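Hi team, as promised in this morning's meeting, here are the two structures we talked about. I've kept the exact order from the run log so nobody has to guess. The first one is mostly here for context; it's the second one we should focus on when we meet again. Sequence first, then the predicted structure tokens.
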Amino acid sequence: MERGGGGDEGQFNKYALACAVVASMVSIIFGYDTGVMSGAMIFIKEELGISDTQQEVLAGILNICALVGSLAAGRISDYVGRRYTISMASILFMLGAILMGYGPNYAILMTGRCVAGVGVGFALMIAPVYSAEISSAKSRGLLTSLPELCIGIGILLGYILNYVFGKFLPLKLGWRLMLGVAAVPSLALAIGILFMPESPRWLVMRGHLPKAKKVLLKISNTEQEAENRFNDIKLAAGIGDENNSLAAKENQNGKSVWKELLLHPSPPVRWMLITAVGIHFFEHATGIEAVMLYSPRIFRKAGVTSKEHLLLATIGVGLTKITFLVIASFLLDRVGRRKLLLVSLGGMVCALAVLGFSLTMVEGSPEQRLAWGLTLSIVATYTFVAFFNIGLGPVTWVYSSEIFPLRLRAQGASIGVAVNRVMNATVSMSFISIYKAITIGGAFFMFSGISIVAWLFFFFLMPETKGKALEEMEMVFTRKSHRDVAAAGTQNNTR
């Protein structure tokens, strides 16, 4: 599978990188929308006078709508292609940004947020899948982690523009520009993505073999590598030289995909689905959205009082996120997904426990202890963000987009994204209520406990996929194959 045939094949392909970068731009828009809302809510509450419950709904409705978008995007991307699905996501972001930027009242604001939410579902499903399908096994970790890195860049841009618009523009105009400016890059991307090549694996699945071969020649370093990848993809899609028309037709019709995924999955597919659902569940169940969306509230609870200082502190969160996402991008193909994930969860457990402790002490301590509590809370928050983004954050999207076989990849990834959005919405819409019920320190102790469960889940259920071709994943997720390979290795060693 994706066999080596020459010294050039291990080199990085710049055209494939360019394709992944352009596809990942849609994630910058999503990240910006997430980051900018954390600061914009301060000003929205001041002008529109919305309640805490309305803030929770405004924060979380994006993810409820993204659930719908992600489930629809899987089937749509199989019919119209990966490129057009990215373009559709960009158009939805543009419409949502225009409505939110207009935002004369809470109802219009919510409508724009819902439209953007459907775009989020499209973007989160399709960007990693497209990046995975154009990359080779040796560079897939880096290319498939680019959407998550772009989300981080978008979040940081949102935090920075929060500060700039909030400081230099009047209240009515400031938050509307924060939300509406995303319409411009959305339109540019919707057009620009059409100049990129389609996924060769989708082209094979649809029976467009000459077009797929042409794309593979561009994203491979040698003709031999392109030929090897082409043959492996055809084999995985069940397409041979004699029966490619029939197999392609079956793939186009999408026969039995949901049945094979949910009703009668084979043991490897069942294992893939459990792992994909689990990693998406724990990405948000461990509390990252509480920190990214409500960081101004956390810092206010810790003792930061002015709006300017609150927004500056959140910029630090964004910088930390990007720094460690960049580090993770280069480690994924060297260290591996599994090791990074386990280290990440271990660090998150400790950081969340310290954050819970420091916030509890600040709330219950006399005035003179606030200084050290504030410092410890900020350090713990940044440490949590760092550990999350060196492992769990990027690995979630890399892993879930690479493990499913071609015939199930889009729908399998869409199920993972749906779970991801449900958990994101759950945390977004309940965090304020949770910390009011059990204190803000208690909320982070709870997240620390969930992180321990997540570490155990990944330790026992997650196989390593580093360096494996997409067409090999069913073998990776077959326990019997592992035993056979180990037994064969033992026999060879004794000969």
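And here is the second protein, the one for discussion:
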Amino acid sequence: MEKDRNLSPIWLAFLFISVFGVVCYFIIPDTFQSIHTLWSQNNHTYSHGYILLGFVAYALFVDKRWLYHQPSLLAIPLALAAGIVWVASNAIQVLLIQQMLLPVLLFTALLALVGVKNSFKAFVPILALYLALPVADFLITPLQDLTSLVVTTLLRWQGITAYIEGYDIHLPYGVMRISDGCAGVNYLLAGVCIGLFYSYLNLRKTSLKLWAISLIVILSLVGNWLRVWLLILIGYYSKMESGLVHEHGFFGWVIFALFAVGYFFYMRKLEVKDIDFQPADNKGELSVSGKLVAVFSITLIAFSAMPLTIKLLDDQSSSSQIVNITLPEKFKGLTEVQEASENYGIKISGADYSHIYAGNVNGLDVTLAILTFREQKQGKELIYFANRYGPGIKNGKKVEVNAGELNAAMLPNEMGIAYWGYKVANTFTTGGLETKLAQLRQVFSSPFASAVVLHVSCDRYCNGIEEELQVHGDIVNAIPEVEVN
């Protein structure tokens, strides 16, 4: 008898999903690479990402209840919507939204293969992928506080000689700090992954599933508290000489593994109470058909349409390397100088072009800096937390001028005021959100985006921002009139 050389349904499904993933990677490579960077950081919060991805693949491979041939046209509008959201989040440089779209793309691929009803049968493994995305960072501070409370309470009960100040534990031989890494978010997320997949594959009673997940959450928290407590004891009794005091990432996973082994033994006994459980032994049904190939292909095209269009427009706009600066009449007397903006304390991360003008206006020394971006990406962007608009300046206050609003802050030497705003095409903005929205509105034209920073000296010492604005008013009113083309 001739053997069937056709791929089994599950391998055929995995082939289609893999093709979908590879094509999406080439469409939005930076998003995928950001996930790789996140998951490749050893002993960090989301370093379990690739392991979780393996869990997802295993769950889909073992439990084939979702695997039935029923391509759905709903995958096409969902893919198109995902592409639009990606373009919007890329325009405003919110990487988290781009990353959160990746599980949506996996669900879209399943939708194109097996339809709505069957895709939702695999919803739990797909949803679990969010446990490896940076959406749980808000837990760091409360878990850090909880760890600090538990550990310091244990130390007091033991009578350990220590002075506790916030997260710092002052021992006779040195200081140990309960840092962000001691919050245990990584162990908590890894534990939830284990509990979620174990209950998904081995339990059917809702009450047992909830208990399985709750138990591993408790064990993960307790294991982290035990880890931190033991490390402090090791530091105390070794007089801070033990290598674990400085390198203890692996130590934490050893404790987690011991708790996990106990958890699995207990769960095996709990499974016998799950009379509703019936192992799935179906092989699934999936075959290559004209409808499946058509729906799958159009779904990929629908997702790629917007990102590729924006990329084409960006490539066309980037072919023009020349930035034309048109200064308003008030600044015509300024002269462009060949100096770095950092010399004036102005640090804009990754600006493609820097134009510095200096001179005298109304008897006052004036420096005008225009830092322009031709293209932006994560960490190289106009609105960025690390950007500085003068020496020691991060945040300013909004002041009213004839043209609207400006950011203003006094320079540290109290001999000048810094004023700044942002220019996106012909739109002048002052806040981060409105600037990002301006970039979103201009997404198809891909205009230059600039920070416009003006330093104006005071007559000897500044009296205050509001007072000096009365003197500088006609100068700063010209800032929004700067044109960048």
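Starting points for discussion:
The chain has 13 helices and 15 strands.
Residues 9-130+288-316 form one domain.
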